[in-house]
């Protein structure tokens, strides 16, 4: 957990809750950030391998709003150590995150790797880049082989991030995660079936 992340989320109410529950002193020595966090190699590799994340924004009436975002692995691009971006695919056309960001650009992103029980939280400020106003930049954040209509790009200036522990994360695996094991199992089954068929043929037919 970075000092910048702590200083961003440790509001007076949070500090009061920590003091009341006896955890305030545990975090005191971890404060004192000089500026926004910068994405390093571990964060870039983790984000670059994800095919989805959760995006939280804030409505003008103060309600938090959470949305799932998905795409091909690596659809969230690292533009530089202070900036990430992703293509905004056409969906249900509610435009809630888009509208929220136009009024309050603060967002939170939650990246999950269930198979390896790892998670990364990122805080930042998000702006939209319309495909019509800057098509070359939006194309830079798009994936040519992915069949989805890109309406715009979202660019996020990183403020802070936090790696969470693996406690309480239940391992879950995608079809792609399991594919090598399933392929090996099917190959082994085919090998055993061929061996049985060969044995039966040598014995004059299947055993009764």
From TrEMBL:
Pfam families: PNPOx_N (PF01243). This is Pyridoxamine 5-phosphate oxidase. Gene3D superfamilies: Electron Transport, Fmn-binding Protein, Chain A (2.30.110.10). It comes from Xanthobacter tagetidis. SUPFAM superfamilies: FMN-binding split barrel. It comes from the Bacteria. Residues 44-137 form the Pyridoxamine 5'-phosphate oxidase N-terminal domain.
């Amino acid at each position: 957990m970075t000092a910048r992340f702590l200083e961003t989320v440790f509001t007076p109410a949070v500090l009061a809750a920590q003091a009341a529950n006896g955890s305030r002193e545990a975090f005191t020595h971890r404060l004192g950030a000089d500026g926004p966090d910068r994405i390093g190699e571990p964060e870039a590799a983790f984000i670059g391998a994800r095919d989805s994340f959760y995006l939280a924004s804030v409505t003008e009436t103060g309600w938090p709003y959470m949305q799932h975002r998905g795409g091909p692995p690596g659809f969230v691009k690292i533009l530089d150590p202070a900036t990430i971006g992703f293509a905004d695919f056409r969906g249900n056309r509610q435009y809630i995150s888009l509208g929220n960001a136009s009024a309050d650009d603060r967002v939170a992103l939650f990246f999950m790797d269930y198979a390896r029980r790892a998670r990364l939280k990122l805080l930042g400020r998000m702006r939209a880049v319309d495909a019509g106003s800057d098509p070359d930049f939006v194309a830079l954040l798009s994936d040519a082989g992915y069949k989805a209509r890109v309406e715009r790009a979202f660019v996020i200036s990183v403020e802070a991030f936090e790696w969470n522990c693996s406690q309480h994360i239940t391992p879950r695996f995608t079809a792609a995660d399991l594919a090598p094991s399933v392929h090996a199992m099917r190959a082994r089954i085919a090998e055993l079936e061929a061996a049985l068929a060969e044995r039966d043929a040598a014995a004059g037919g299947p055993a009764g």
